[in-house]
Amino acid sequence: MTQMKIAVAGASGRMGRMLVEAIQNADDALLAGALDVPSAPELGTDAAAFLGKPAGVLIEADLAKGLAQAAYLIDFTRPEGTLKHLDYCAAHGIKMIIGTTGFDEAGKAAIAAAAKKTAIVFASNMSVGVNVTLKLLEMAAKSFSHGYDIEIIEAHHRHKVDAPSGTALMMGEAVAGALGRKLDDVAVYGREGITGERDPSSIGFAAIRGGDIVGDHTVLFAGIGERVEITHKSSSRVTYAQGSLRAARFLRDKSSGLFDMQDVLGLR
Ligand SMILES: NC(=O)C1=CN([C@@H]2O[C@H](COP(=O)(O)OP(=O)(O)OC[C@H]3O[C@@H](n4cnc5c(N)ncnc54)[C@H](OP(=O)(O)O)[C@@H]3O)[C@@H](O)[C@H]2O)C=CC1
Ligand SMILES: O=C(O)C1=N[C@H](C(=O)O)C[C@H](O)C1
Questions:
Q1: Exposure pattern of 193-209 as b/e (b: 16+ CB <10 Å)?
Q2: Are 129 and 156 in contact (CB under 8 A)?
Q3: Nearest alpha carbon, ligand 1 atom 36
Q4: What is this structure's pTM?
Q5: By alpha-carbon position, which residue is closest to atom 31 of ligand 1?
Q6: Which terminus, N or C, of the chain has the lesser number of Cβ atoms within 10 Å?
Q7: 77 in ligand 1 pocket by Cβ < 6 Å?
Q8: Is 108 a catalytic residue?
Q9: Which ligand is nearest to the CA of 160?
Q10: Which residue has a Cα nearest atom 14 of ligand 1?
């Protein structure tokens, strides 16, 4: 089988490096390009230099140069970066795997529109564990639909810029959907001061930031006399990188369409 020619955006970032390493170690993938912002100190250097084994691929800021050889772009950057890459990829038929979080509604609509021109997997969490947990949450939410308060607690490293995490929001969507509620109508993002008693239909979010926590998520169903907690903890970013490669493999035979990791993992 031919190798997938994959470029990585944000190549010198935490996820970018994980992805470069995963591609270098995969028999069915070839690192075909690397992008980063013009101010990145690593610009112009070999994307795999940090592994001590150069790939012969330089980190570029220019999209035409960085994507010239690529059939896929894996993008874990920031919404404004991803949306710029999206336009280019849609215009040039480059498939995308988008892991970036923190999009507003307009950003999500732009991704859906681009998926009419190229194939895209877009998911706030690429790990198998989190995606299976989403199914467990749907089941639990249906059983705890009355008499249980639902709160979502997430913890991440000190460098994370968006809150709540994309995963916490996906978990909120899964739980709200199973209960026939709209997350926008019931979400409570943090509490302070005289808040009044808890609205029983609400879904609360709390975000913790500190140190090098890779990503912890707990959904709490709190009743009278008991509580159930469903928790996922990532101990390494490798799970996100491997999930992204699975997503690229899933896109091999697709030329357009918007998919998520539930599609990739056959969980829908
Ligand atoms: N879906 C999933 O499974 C996962 C999603 N994520 C998400 O991925 C994203 C990146 O996370 P992480 O790797 O930790 O972050 P980092 O900050 O370590 O990496 C982001 C990279 O993108 C670059 N970048 C920043 N702004 C832009 C821009 N406007 N255009 C292009 N590139 C840009 C950064 O450059 P510079 O450092 O110079 O600013 C950096 O190289 C986040 O949104 C995070 O939530 C993370 C892990 C898993
Ligand atoms: O920024 C991170 O690190 C992570 N971001 C994703 C999110 O916002 O859910 C996925 C994972 O939790 C790590």
A1: eeeeeeeeeebbbbbee
A2: no
A3: 40
A4: 0.98
A5: 81
A6: N
A7: yes
A8: no
A9: 2
A10: 14
Q: Based on the fold, state whether residues 114 and 140 are members of the same structural domain.
A: no
Question: Which ligand sits nearest to residue 235's alpha carbon?
Answer: 2
Q: Bin 8: left if φ > 0, else alpha if -120 < ψ < 50, else beta.
A: beta
Report ipTM for this prediction: 0.99
Q: Judge if 115 and 243 occupy the same domain.
A: yes
Q: Are 114 and 8 members of one domain?
A: yes
Q: Are residues 153 and 202 in the same domain?
A: yes
Taking the centre of ligand 1 as the mean of its atom positions, its distance from the CA of residue 216, in whole angstroms, is: 18
What is the span of the domain harbouring residue 49?
4-126+237-265
Give the integer Cα–Cα distance in Å for 25 and 28. Answer: 9
Annotated catalytic residue within 85, 95, 156, 217: 156
Residue positions forming the annotated binding site for (S)-2,3,4,5-tetrahydrodipicolinate: 157, 166-167
Q: What is the CATH number of the domain that holds 107?
A: 3.40.50.720
In this predicted structure, the answer to whether residue 1 has a pLDDT above a threshold of 90 is no
H/E stretch holding 8: strand 4-9
Name the active-site residue from 85, 160, 217, 232.
160
Task: Judge whether 156 counts as a catalytic residue.
Answer: yes
DSSP run (H or E) holding 81: helix 79-92
pLDDT value of position 51:
98
Per-residue pLDDT reduced to its tens digit, 59-103: 999 999 999 999 999 999 999 999 999 999 999 999 999 999 999
Angle between helix axes 105-114 and 79-92 (nearest 10 degrees) is 20
Question: How many domains would you assign to the chain?
Answer: 2
